[in-house]
Amino acid sequence: MLAGFGLIALAWVIQLFNMTRGNRSVQPLFIGVYIVGVIILAASDVMGGDVNIAYAELVTIIASLLTLVALLVTKPKKIACASCLFRTPPLPIQVTMK
Fold it and tell me: CB neighbours of 11 closer than 8 A, spacing ≥ 6?
């Protein structure tokens, strides 16, 4: 069980590291390590007899796998930066001489 939690924590460290380097997208390595950690937790819960929690973790695994597949299959689209969307165009300056 601790190995599962450790892998999930490692996955978040991987994602945080990439974000501090300026990459704000979800990393496939993050999702992969996260899935392995949750699989270990689910297996531990099944062995411990807590099947209801294992079912909830199974839903998390499926959602993570779907996200990973979508991330790997789709091509990245170029989008404008968020600050560019709200930037107003410069106002023309009119100077009058008297």
Answer: 29, 30, 31, 32, 33, 34, 37
